[in-house]
């Protein structure tokens, strides 16, 4: 069974609200995936994403009945921290987490679409760079952009990456990509819904780190 299919995102309800508990359960499987990518540069990224998830979970567990959806959390924090919001609490953690999720979405979509460097068909640098430019680059100053360059050099070969997505099992490339495409349906809808929520609540910030 593929790693991706084991941890499918659920279909959203018609109002596109994201259930906090289900969301946290599903994203909590993502950090472990970094361990199979090999390089220690990925541990920096893993701990950043882990930190985001821990922060959102911490808020949720304080009052699960109050924070049924992610929007419930943002709205409550807007009321509680009017001066600092949205640069505070789980609102800030989810603001960054969604960018990492968007990065993964664009990377997987690009692989599924068959974007590749014809001269180096087993490299994924074109796919990773596309995802970085669209999801993260504008939020990074020169230093973090340098970290990206290091991570880019450490990116696995396409064949190894697809194998890792399939939990180390030898599956045919086409079968793996079919799994990726299926995974992307609810995943993309969820990430889109979170972006839309940040726009609607005017919660998006564009400072650089
Ligand atoms: C935020 O971090 C915190 O997350 C947030 C709060 O402290 C806030 C305060 O302003 O800062 O500084 C972090 C930023 N996070 C801001 C940078 C971390 C290192 C990022 C290095 C860039 C690497 C780009 C990725 C290259 C990957 C190559 C992959 C090859 C396969 C399947 C691979 C998936 C990769 C997913 C990459 C996601 C990167 C996410 C980075 C997010 C970021 O820029 S709070 O913390 O509120 O929770 O306390």
From TrEMBL:
A molecular-function term among this protein's GO annotations: ceramide 1-phosphate binding
Intracellular or extracellular location(s): Cytoplasm
Pfam families registered for this protein in UniProt: GLTP
Sorted UniProt keywords: Cytoplasm, Lipid transport, Repeat, Transport
Domain of life, source organism: Eukaryota
Cellular component aspect of the GO annotation: cytosol; membrane
Domain Glycolipid transfer protein: 18-166
Function recorded in the entry: Accelerates the intermembrane transfer of various glycolipids. Catalyzes the transfer of various glycosphingolipids between membranes but does not catalyze the transfer of phospholipids. May be involved in the intracellular translocation of glucosylceramides.
Homology family: Belongs to the GLTP family.
The protein, known as: Glycolipid transfer protein-like protein
Species assigned in the record: Lates japonicus (Japanese lates)
């Amino acid at each position: 069974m593929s790693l991706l299919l084991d941890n499918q995102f659920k279909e959203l309800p018609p109002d596109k609200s994201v259930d906090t508990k289900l969301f946290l359960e599903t994203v909590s499987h993502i950090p472990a995936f970094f361990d199979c990518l090999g390089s220690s540069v990925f541990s920096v990224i893993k701990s950043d994403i882990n930190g985001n998830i821990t922060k959102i979970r911490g808020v949720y567990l304080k009052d699960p009945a109050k924070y049924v959806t992610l929007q419930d959390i943002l709205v409550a924090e807007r009321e509680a921290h009017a001066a600092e919001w949205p640069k505070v609490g789980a609102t800030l953690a989810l603001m960054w987490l969604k960018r990492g999720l968007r990065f993964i979405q664009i990377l997987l979509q690009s692989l599924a679409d068959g974007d590749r460097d014809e001269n180096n068909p087993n490299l994924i640098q074109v796919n990773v760079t596309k995802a970085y430019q669209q999801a993260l680059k504008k939020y990074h100053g020169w230093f973090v952009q340098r970290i990206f360059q290091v991570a880019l050099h450490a990116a696995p070969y396409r064949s190894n990456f697809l194998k890792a997505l399939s939990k180390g099992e030898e599956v045919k490339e086409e079968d793996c990509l079919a799994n990726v495409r299926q995974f992307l349906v609810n995943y993309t809808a969820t990430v889109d819904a979170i972006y839309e929520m940040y726009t609607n609540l005017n919660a998006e910030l564009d400072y650089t780190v």
